[in-house]
């Protein structure tokens, strides 16, 4: 039964409707012929009861097949002799013979068309109506599942694609709104410290400067501290602007020579690691001659990851570049202390910093920027720890 249903749903709608109409006409023809034949026989039998045949002959030498050409046959129906019941039957038979074929054709076509509607478009139309009402109600948490290969099945598949795209867009929008809220919260939170410091020093100057209780050295030291806090606010505002611009930055992919690009990545890693007194291990397994990507985006992510690894590594940084199924990946590991459980959850959030980073006056934007750029390039950023000890950061980029 399932195979028959699947086969039926694979037939195009126009072909199904054509077949239904042909079957309706054939069924009506057969039924109409059988009924009219039966009724006509009864009609003839009824009329024969009241039929009078008279013939007259005139002298003639001309004959046709032994029948006198001048023989006159008169047939008369004695309607006045019909009984009440026979007359009623006569009218019924006449009505059936005249109107029943057209009525039967209409009924058969209507029945078969209704059968076509309830077995073919009714279910997908009901599903589409329900789905459109759910979308109108901003409910995208459902799946439109209608199996088949006909036009309605393709329409349902297209509708499901649209729903899935809307759902994904909504999720991305909610995620962006949530990230923007987190960004604003982090921005507001981190602004409180320099503002509080500036307010405290301002109050001190207002209270003690007029009375001369502050020496020139103390005033100068206070002004320097305030200036440092102002510089911190400026840097923080610039970092906030950088993150917002990154979210709107377009990715422009272009073919890049694989060997030249990998050589550049190797040289950059050597320079960054040597500057921190670290050993750099670089491995690449890319067979393609060209990589279709945005070099500026990949390099920005790459250098951010290398810088992070160099800050926490003890002795060495290991880098591996690979290419699988239209995805270019860069994996960077170090032999430092690795990520904590909290780091793995929140390190890609804006302005996140652990205790060590806070002591270093660190903004905590590097991995957040890397995640944004990876996603805009059709890839992702993944954090982890290696079994031997140390952190692992893997960035992937789509090359299609």
Describe the structure.
With 400 residues, the chain is α+β, with helices and mostly antiparallel strands. 61% of the residues lie in helices and 15% in strands. The chain contains 11 helices and 11 strands. The strands form 4 sheets. A 5-stranded mixed sheet has the order 6-8-9-11-10. A two-stranded antiparallel ribbon has the order 1-4. Strands 2-3 form a two-stranded antiparallel ribbon. α2 packs antiparallel against α3, α4 packs parallel to α5 and α8 packs antiparallel against α11. About 3% of the residues have low confidence.
Record the SSE blueprint.
Layout: H1 2-10, H2 13-48, E1 51-56, E2 63-64, E3 67-68, E4 72-77, H3 84-119, H4 122-136, H5 151-208, H6 216-248, E5 254-257, H7 258-275, E6 279-285, E7 290-293, H8 295-312, E8 316-324, E9 327-334, H9 341-346, H10 355-359, H11 366-376, E10 381-385, E11 391-398
Parallel strand pairs: 6-8
Antiparallel strand pairs: 1-4, 2-3, 5-7, 8-9, 9-11, 10-11
Helix pairs in contact: 2-3, 4-5, 5-6, 7-8, 8-11
Poorly predicted spans:
60-65, 357-363
Largest sheet data: 5 strands, mixed
How many β strands by DSSP?
Answer: 11
Strand portion: 15-25%
Class inferred from helices and paired strands = alpha+beta
Number of helices: 11
Gyration radius, rounded: 45 Å
Q: Cα distance, first to last residue?
A: 43 Å
The ordered H/E elements are: HHEEEEHHHHEHEEHEEHHHEE
Strand order of the largest sheet: 6-8-9-11-10
Overall geometry: elongated
Helix content: 55-70%
Average pLDDT works out at 82
